[in-house]
Structures are given as C-alpha cells and as structure tokens.
Amino acid sequence: MYCLHTTPIIDQLGISSIAKHTEEDPTLSELLKTVKSGNTWILKTASKDLQRIQPIHNKITFSGNNILLKSDRIILPEKLQEQAIQFAHSGSNPGISSMKRRLRSHFFFHNMQSKVSYFMNT
Q1: SS3 letters for 63-77?
Q2: Neighbouring-strand partners of residue 74
Q3: What is the mean pLDDT of the chain?
Q4: How far apart are the first and last CA of the chain?
C-alpha cells in the first residue's frame, strides 16, 4: 500500500472521486482485484484493455482508499482523464510538452500523449 500526496490537480479532481471512478471503471476494478490478490500476471482471457497493462503489472500497487498506482503515479480512470488535461492546461496556458510533463508527474494513463495533443489541437 502507498500513501498519496495531493497536488493542485489531484485536489481539483478529488481523491474520493478518483477512488469512486476507479471502482466503477471495469478495467481498473478488475486490475485492482488482481493486484490485491497478489497475482503477478493477468489472465490471457482478460479483456484487451486489461492485457495491455501486463508489461507494467509489476509496478502497480494500490493506496488505502483503493486508488491504483504505477510506481508513485495515480492510474487515472478514463472518465477523469479529460478533466485532468483541462486542469493541467489552466493557469499559464502551457504548451503540449509542459502539459504532458504536468500530467506525467501525477498520473499514468494510456495514450496520454495523443489525448493531450488532441485537446491542444481542438
């Protein structure tokens, strides 16, 4: 288990909201069960979304409030990813690389680069 340290972006999203959406996300809730059970693998019959986590599975832990972590970064549920990107953009109107750096310092989610690029170009 890991203790979370909050930051402005995490504060804006809310720890309880991240925990709630992790529990509601089918892939992340299944991943949480796998990690809690101590399994070091993901079944080949699991969904493709869950299988793509296999290469980083050994770096995943969870916090006391059941938030998944990749090393010290929160694995952000899909429902909160766009909101996190918006929060990372607020303030000094950063460029794409600065936004990705802000997000990467707090969060992990697949396709972060393409999602930030899409956000900046729309």
Answers
A1: ECCCCEEECCEEECC
A2: 69, 107
A3: 89
A4: 39
Q: Which of 38-42, 77-81, 91-95 has the highest mean pLDDT?
A: 77-81
Q: Which residue has the tokens 């796998």?
A: 34
Query: Contact, 32 vs 68, CB < 8 A?
Result: yes
pLDDT for 2 equals 43
Mean pLDDT of 55-62: 94
SS (H, E, C) 15-38: HHHHHHHHHHCHHHHHHHHHHHHC
Residue with tokens 């599975």: 57
Position with higher pLDDT, 18 vs 91: 18
Contact 6, 19 (CB under 8 A): no
Listed in sequence order, the residues at least 6 apart from 40 whose beta carbon sits closer than 8 Å to its beta carbon are 57, 58
Cα 10 to Cα 4: distance, rounded to the nearest angstrom:
10
Find out whether 99 and 116 touch, Cβ atoms under 8 Å. yes
| 44: its two tokens | 């080949």
Give the helix/strand (H/E) hosting 117: helix 112-120
